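Checklist before submission:
- one chain only
- standard amino acids only
- sequence pasted in full

Submission:
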Amino acid sequence: MPYPYIKPLLNAANTKIVMLVMDGFGGMPITPGGPTELEAAHTPNMDRLAKEGTLGQTIPIRYGITPGSGPAHLALFGYDPLEYVIGRGTLEAVGVGMHVRKGDVAARGNFCTLDASGKISDRRAGRIPSEEALPIVEKMKAVKVPGVEVEVRHVKEYRFAVVMRGEGLSPEIADTDPQATGVAPLPVQATAPQAERAAALYQHWVDEARKVIASEPKANGLTLRGFATHPGLPSYKEAYDLRAACVAVYPMYRGVAQLVGMDVIDFPGDTPEDEFAALGRVWNDYDFFFIHIKKTDSKGEDGDFDGKAHMIEMVDQALPTLLSHKPDVLIITGDHSTPAKLRTHSWHPVPFLLWAPETARPDAETAFGERACARGGLGTFNALEAMPLALAHALRLNKYGA
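Returned file contents:
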């Protein structure tokens, strides 16, 4: 269990918790002394919540450790990512409805663009749209590997997922993405002796898949990341006695939610307003709602400071729809920081806002931003403590001890 000491304290209550996660939320000033993306954004609704609530900042994994999105979300959900390890492949595969059983090996795939010498010129194949990527994935479905079953499915844009099923497979395999341009994709290599068979089979699949996409103008290459199998996590119902729902656009985040026992809500559209409207349609059916906003992270990775600030503004403008349901506890935070200045995930603390009108103790801060969060009443704490805080403010925890 994530928190064995919490299980005996759980108290049934008719209260609602919303965790709104803006991916890559934390930022940095572009110039010394300037604002971060959050501080530059016009966010009157979040500023009001900050004034009425309590601020702080989280450390997703441990100090100085730059997290991936999977482990960072696990931490927010209360599962120590150093204890519960989930590879990106499983998250992507489950998120698009693929079955990953214990012993299967899943991987996340990225299309990339290779130059005439076989070196990567674009790690994301120009971020090709889904309608262009789908027929390329269909081509790869024809690739067979003797002795195992291989399933391939499109995820979104330039991403796809691969699941290999068979005897004697192990996921201890290194990524083939070199995380750089101007170099060739890495070979599939085992990181433990028991994974040698799986690595060889995956290399066979990669070699054949590259042949069938070699003539594509953009997506003529591929890399694989996050080799993993099913982790066997305890569910939110088991851990917290919560009926939990996930509202997310991107499959990976739907995947991590499913792995902790959340129901994934399908909905049309992909804007913050669409997501908040979806929450409203199932409001009476659940106790806990995880809402995920992806494009804050994408804009950060693109180095688009203004675009990231604008995405935060779009969430702020849509917040009245969410607030109209009167959640008892609302947490607004991110899984990690993705400063546009760095164009990548970083180790910096993540802004955290706790709004619980009946139970929160307001601090002195009146606006939502990194500097205010560093001064906030919650201080700097590990993201693992977000769920106990949410449960306590929702009056779902009894006293510990006599």
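Reviewer check: Residues 12-85+233-393 form a domain with the Alkaline Phosphatase, subunit A fold (CATH 3.40.720.10).
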